[in-house]
Amino acid sequence: MDKINNNNKKINRANISSFILFFICILSIGILLFFNGFLLMRFELPLKSQCNQSPLPNYDAINNNNLNNNNNNGCWMNKTYNKAVIVVIDALRYDFVARQPISNGSSGGGGDSTSIYFHNRLTSIQNLIDNKPENSLFYKFVADSPTVTMQRIKGITTGSLPTFIDVGSNFGGDAIVEDSLVNQLSFFDNHNNNNSSNNNHNNNNNKNDNNDNDEKVGKFRNKVIFIGDDTWVGLFPNHFYAEYPYPSFNVKDIDTVDNGVLEHLLPTITKLNDEWDVAIAHLLGVDHVGHTYGPYHPEMIRKLNQMDEFLLSIINNIKNDTLFILMGDHGMTTDGNHGGASLLETEAALFMYSPGIKINSSNSIPKEILKSRLSSVPFDHYDSNNDNINNNNNNNNNDNNQIVRDISQIDLVSTLSLALGVPIPFGNLGSIIPELFFSSGGENIENQWNNLFNALRINTFQIKRYIEEYSKISKEFPISKLQHFDQLLKTTEDLFNKYQNSATNTINPIDIYKGYIQYHQEVIELCRNIWATFDLFSMDCGILLILLSIISIIFFIVKLISIGGGAAGAGETIKFPIKSIGISIGFGLIISTITNITLSKMNLSDKYSSQTITLTIPSIISIICFIYKLKSIPIISTTTTTSSSSNLTFISQLKSFYLYIIKSISIFKIITTILPIATFILHGVSFYSNSFIEAQQGVVYFFLVSNILLLLINSFKNKLKWSLNDTLLSIGTFISLFLSSPLIWNFKFSSLFIPNLNETNGDNIFSNLFETFWVLPLIFILWRNIIFKQTSTISSISTTPLIHQILLSISLISISLYWYIIQPLISSNKYQFNWIEKSILPWIVYLSSIIGLYYTIVNNNNNNNNNNSSTTKINNPVEKLLKRLVYICCYFYLVILLLLGVENSKSTLLMLSQAIFIAYILIPTNINNNNNYYFKFIVLSIIFGFLSINDFFTSGHEYSFNKIQFESAFIGFENHFYLRDGLLVLLNTFSSPIFFTLSLPIVIIYTRFYRLLKMKQLVILSNTKELLEIDENEIQSFFSLKDLLISFLCQLVFYGYQTLHICISVYGLRRHLMVWRVFAPKYIFESIQLLIVSFFILFLSILISYFINLNQKKNLIKIK
Amino acid sequence: MANLNQSSSSIQVPKLSKYMISFGYFLMGIIVTATMFLSNNNNFSIVSYTLLSEIIFGVIISFLHIGFSIFAFPGNSSTLDKINRSLIGLSIGNFVFYFLLILYGAPFLKSIHTTFFFGFLLSSMCCLPPSILLGLNPQNWKDLFFTPNHNNIIDTCTTILVVFSILGAWIGAFPIPLDWDRPWQQWPISCVFGSIVGHIFGLFICSVYSLVHKEKKSM
Fold first, then answer.
1. Is residue B61 part of a domain?
2. Which ranges does the record mark as transmembrane (chain B) (predicted)?
């Protein structure tokens, strides 16, 4: 009989890891699917176009010689213009510029009627369109989403499609690293940006210094001068010959940026010819009026009138060899916002004017070219706008015979590059604007076609070169597609050669033009599908799996709690249904295979990813099987039979009174349980508001204080006598909480005593000492006096093993020496340490932690073999397990303490003190309230979850890539090793979730078992028989590890619930990317946090099962 | 302990019937509601004059509760004893709530006055009625809030008032991080609104509860 029981116990012990592993796998698959569907990545190529390397095929070697000879007149093509003035009016929508019909009774109101606020205000531009049609071009400038300024500037200057994460060499920074128009305009070939660190903001400083001026002229191919929105200076550092940036973040500031442009642009373009080549101005007033007041406001009238005068002054002052460009980077909605993908947001205006050179030979250019859609305009935009185009065509045909044209914003780069005589940026995917090159070819139609084809072929082969280079580092382009592109281009090239060599005009040049444009269209459509389209099916499946796993965990927790209610059920443990799960996974794989085959036959495999289906269907079926298995397990109910010999009247009165008490008590319990769960739910719901996410530190701290106050109130209720120690404990908890408050956590106390803190090294060392010298001794005191002493039993003489004391002390000393001696000297650069001297102290900490962990896991102490009494029977395994977990947590804490550094050491101390205070608050004093345990576990998981988030912020982190403390990867190491770097950075960033996950089982075991048994020793003399029965019950409850399983699952629910809500919020807001930069980084951090917490929960469950198994083997040996 | 409760309840003769108690709570609710509407409609709103509103509402609510306790609260204490208890409870509660508000994250350097007098307002709602009823013995407070055996209507109604006032202030903090840019979304204006609304709600609930409550049969 005993052997059978032992076998059952062994089987039961393996369950806790199996359940946790099962849930973690489902959660991870859900996160993986959502990740693949949501985060679209495009790799930035570091290559740049070269002036002396034309993308045209090799048989144009003769032309290359001509290009080299004509280098001063342009690179790949001869210059059409010597100068350019580029004016970006932010949020300039198409209809702000296009002439609208005048209606007599119109008084605004939106819709299709003409508005007096923003229509027909820019009369200077409209007059040019009407009076000089051959020198003017006017387009709808269609933007890809996200319609935010930084992404739009990137598209306008690089010609590449925007994605939400461009993986490049400056991950996390703002500067554009890949090739761009500004880079090509400013710098010669083989120019290194890092060499031009000297940059004068005002050109006036060098007027009197001819030598510096000559040296500076040699660095720049063109003198590009920028005025306006300072976003450009961040995107293009050290690129401009002169720059006048103005801050752009305050949308209520209507005039600062615009006044700066008005002040500087006209003097710049009226300077001598050799003082400037290209002037770029970015004005923000129209955008800020839209954000602050909306477009239907008198302030918009004032602003557009100001813009009209400004534009007129520029037009009147540019020379014949200058190209003037006016554009908007995006539109605005009816309430003045932007960021999404609606027509009002994506339709900006583009106007080009050339006073001396024709750019729009409307009489001779074929209508087929004008009617054909350029490659880059998205399909959905074109189709949805088709009716409007037809209507506009009818109206304009009656008036001006002008066709409304749509071009994409990425088409501007190639056009400007060739017109200004610089290479097209390497990553450009846009097409040239045909009117400009056709018209500027001269008066002869043959020369016009030749000029157009010359530009078009350069454009085409540049795109081909980019596709080939990109395919080398990414396998996202199907080979069949690439072969199709090559075949298409070859056909068009053959047609062009025939046209060029044929004496007779048998080939229509329009067909050649269409061939090249078709190549452009198909290439960019493929790129757009890969880089800028969400996989909604994978996102749906990911959210579904995360939701199902959370539901199944909650269902399982409820089942565990209901089983554990009675005394007889304490030993009953649910087995993990491994066979059923395996069969269901196999069955799911069969179904997914059949589904994939069916979908591929129906040509739906592009829409429904086979990988997604293969991962989703087995997971769903296994979850359903798991829930079904749970339902089939009966709940053991404990029914106490009442003896019928008692007095009925007395029993009825006693029962009614007892029920009244039970009802009232349960109401109070529900109140103290509902509020923590309500804060948990509200915290998830707050993820749908960007305001709450930006204020999340305050929100989390608010909920944390509420929960801890409830915990103290509950403790006050349960204590039979409120003693002085309890008061001190409460005050300590409040102080520890207050020091991690958002108000005060980064407050420097040394600033109270050192009024003027200088930047000298001595003051820095002194400041660090004053701020944090008390941290390490306090940690030592907390460890020595509170943790290790409390884990010792009264009857036992065993203390902390000597090796742990040595390792922990050495580590603390090493950390203090590293913080206060080595690191300040390294940062001051006074002493030259070699890498051994820099790294020896961190290595001591790392090695001590590894040795300590190894010793904790492997060591088997036999100190307690001598005590065989009944009390030590339960004490030994509890005490040993508790000590091992404490040691493991201490060693991880040491590494965290080292990685977070001296600046965050206060926060690290607060983590430790908060965990200790909560453990003491949760110590029960009543023996009889058995039902209180599980609700306490739920509350504890919620509090530890909020604490980990709060301490995430107080340890210097935010949900932003710029705030990751990458220097922690180099503590103790010099060279790069990405796996180790990533490990150290993860330990640094997610230190508080790791610490509180490691602390959770310690607090559970301490409050659940150890203290209770400790008190029973005092009562051992009174009633031995009853005590033995309770002991037996506690032994079974302890070995089943049910309490730890419930706590771990509650933690998984806490973090999984957060990840679920952030996934749902980014799913809903995926096209409203004004708030993208708030939600997307938080999504990434939440997902990684959930995976890390899952890993540590699995790690702890395996270790705990291993320790229990070791102890059980010992007992078996004793019995034998 | 139970015997003491029984003997005290048997000795005490209720001063007022449950109808009068219900009317008293209802009248207090009406007065506070009317004060709130009058102050907001006469350009003397809580938004514009936060500090003064906190003081005025705190004083009004304190006087209402003191007046009600003189007529309706059980026990043999004299009027002077009740007033002394109320002032002591109000003072201690003011400081306790002030420190709790600081703990919750209220800015303690920028708007120290409004935070302190919001503590005064909360104290008049949550500490003054129990202190008149119970005095300063912690065990009595523990029995009131945690023991289900309430001896009379006043005990339960006092608990309801405290819970709803604190819950209203707690919920009033939710709009503060939002970016709606309303003038009342500042510390502590939304919490003042929340606590007063919660208190009014609690008063009306007490009024209904007094009518519904059935006298417990004597054992």
1. yes
2. 20-39, 51-75, 87-109, 115-136, 157-175, 187-212
